[in-house]
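Hi everyone, sorry if this is the wrong subforum. Our group has a chain we'd like a structural model of before ordering constructs, and none of us has done structure prediction before. Sequence below.
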Amino acid sequence: MKKLCLLAAIAAAAPLFAQLNVRSEGRGAIAIKDAHVVTVSGADMPKATVVLRDGLIEDVGPSVTVPADAWVIDGAGLTVYPGFIDALSTWGIPAAIPPIAARAAGAAPQNIPAQASPAQQTPAQPDRGPEDRPQNYSFERAADLVTPADNRLEAVRAAGFTTAATFPNRGILEGLGAMVDVAGERGRDMVVIQPIGQQITFRTGAGGMGRAFPSSLMGNIAYVRQLYLDLDQYKQVKELYAAHPAGTRRPEYDHDLEGLAESPRVLLPADEAQQIDRMLHFGQELKVPFVLYGVHEAFKRVEELKQANVPVLVSLKWPEKPKDTDPADIPNYRDLQLREQAPAVPGMFAKAGIRFAFYSDGVDTAPDLRKAIKTAIDAGLSRADTIRALTLNAAEIYGVSDRLGSIDKGKIANLVVMRGDAFEEKTTIDYVFVDGRQFQPSKEAQQGPAESAPGSRRPGPAPSESADKGDRN
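Answer:
Right subforum, don't worry. Here is the predicted structure as tokens:
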């Protein structure tokens, strides 16, 4: 009788397990046998086996023995790539970040917007950052905000993305980014490493305030410059106190400056040629490692970027003719040149030896991401350089190539398994592995919704059941 009850309980629970629609890590090994493996860090392997265990790549090579406990995927006709990395993102960040005061009072930072308290939903005043440093969120941590309940994550997995350098998205100094995987049971499960950098936006009039401060680009630059001057002095005072604490008044703790001090690099916006010139100079002035992002007009500054030896992040949101443009309007030469030349910039970088990676910039569906990447290929970027920009280059720029960006023994098991070569029109994604967790993107997710439109920064929370389909046993 007990056996019958047990069998009945298992049968009743089966649909619940089916709803997970993924194969979890930690249940023995997974082996992708006899597939074409693009390691990125080395030569391609036309017929090799990749073994995954406990979220890591246990082994890879043409003569690897399949473990006895492995669940085997026949790799015939399949190509295995490292999971793609979005080099500057908001993936996983909630649509409404709880105000500072509310979180200081004990609000959970990972609450999704629909679960926010009334006090969080309708703050009495706009959340402007510290009173003495408006629009400064240098202390905000993406690692504390990220949540798996972002419905963009399923869509970007369907494009082969497994990882993102994600940042908060408000103010001038937006806060400390984190390298996160785009799947997990909880937000903290998604975090690979943090902090990875401090993003600066130079938004003028940011935050929706009636009287924004600073209110101009030059005011923004002066403001950030002063913060970094304050940081230099803050460091000196702390070092002096650490060396001679007796008889010395201890320095006051400054959590704004601590956020700057903790950041290993700063990300500076530089879309136009003039901005590139300005940010190359400004980055050197700050005396910290820096990365430029945007760079659509870099076709005018390739030599300068090469000489500066600065890594760059290229936006996948290519310049387009505005949809509401009057057909009778004649576009100016600069706009036409930008639309034509911007997609060629990645190819120019590759030829010049400039290290670059791609970032989504609001392009958040599988078909739109593939289309944007293919646009760069059609403009002259080789497929090998495209794959490297989406994988190892991004990992190297953020200093995480020891764990991400290539298919090597010991690295995190983030892989995309395709039937066909990447970015070919008929190529489909059979499997995506995130931290060794297997997803099988649906055809609908790969093709996108009929009314798909790029540019949505942060949709609401995902439904409780994932549409990813996984093999289960």
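For your construct planning: The first helix runs from residue 2 to 20. The CA atoms of residues 208 and 265 lie 28 Å apart.
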